[in-house]
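Structure ticket #2291
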Amino acid sequence: MIPLSLGEIAAVVGGTVEGDGAVKVTAPAVLDGRQAEPGGLFVAFAGEYVDGHDYAGQAGRAGAVAVLGSRPTALPTVVVEDAQAALQALAAHVVARLRDGLTVVGLTGSQGKTGTKDLLAAVLSSAAPTIATIGSLNNELGVPLTMLRADAATRFLVLEMGARRVGDIAELTGLVTPDIAVVLNVGQAHLGEFGSRAAIAKTKGELVQGLAPGGTAVLNADDPRVVAMRSLTDGPVLTFGRAEHADVRVLGLALDRLGRPSFTLRAADASVPVALPHVGAHQALNASAAAAAGLAAGVRLDLAAAALATASLSEWRMELRDLTGGVTLLNDSYNANPDSTRAALDALAAIEGGRRIAVLGQMLELGDDSAAEHRAVGEYAASRADVVVAVGEAARSIADGAGERAVVLADNDAAVDWLRGHLAAGDVVLVKASRGARLDEVAAVLG
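Resolution: structure written out below.
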């Protein structure tokens, strides 16, 4: 965050100051008062059940010096009619002030956004100070919060951008125009809300359409819907993937005994070996996307490869842990859709061990096709795992698809009890579901 007085913030967002307008904000903005930093700004929202303004004191004790909200609080406050609009206006102002010398990268896709964002952040950080989305804070609040973490030293700003309806990404690029737009894939995530893959493709394409003049589109050569987005820009295009025509191509993909990929990345006349510390063949595609975006940002392929070899991922994404009793846990419980679940099941199958046990919960927002998609995932799981544990009534269709390999359990507590009673040395356990199923709780108890 660049230092701004409360009076300056009020002028930017069209608010009024209650308290000392000379108070200076020097640290990032937060929505959770417990996460405030010394000199930070607490953004308060009045919800249906919880009023964030009531937590201004908590934020102050954590270090916040001011509040942005819709009514006065115990801290000096910029009062506005619409806190979300004010937060976005402030973020746009801060990035505009920093634009000289700052390269903005936007990244979207139906799955793999957060992992690829983590890899790209590692690549760019190896070259210059980089700010990137924390976790999956990729919506109308998360993007401006990330933007406000940028300061005068920042050279790369990596913004993961999610969407639940047509127009969402266009609104985000209206806050900040990306110099590089990375589109990973067009899958089934949020299909129930979008209604069709065509609508999903249209929305992901908004990132390419939102590019700054001369900006570079980085597109998945393996996904026809993504490759077609090259028609949405007059600027340069770089492609990545395993396809023969990809500008940054994955070659010679192999997995070790823990399912971690090694491969060669080839771009123009350069070829570099890459070994990732993460589980899953799909990580190679994510790495090629990160390397391609790195090239667009001026990072050499060999430097990108070195950074990828030591990159870490956000929590609950393909986390591999050894449990007591010789059991291996693959925790991919943060979120799920049919495509990402199949990728996780492939990763489970690639890990050497005894029995492979897939603990699966509901995949949300699949619309009218939900039952059929759950059943299809169950069928796929049965081809990759020895036991398929379907957790919760909403996941029963997974068990229907898995047939004789399925175990149906009522809830997370039942899943923990079953696993504790049935796991044996050498077993490999995958935990995967949409965030709403909270299967991270199962993984936490096991771990």
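Closing remark: The longest helix spans residues 83-98.
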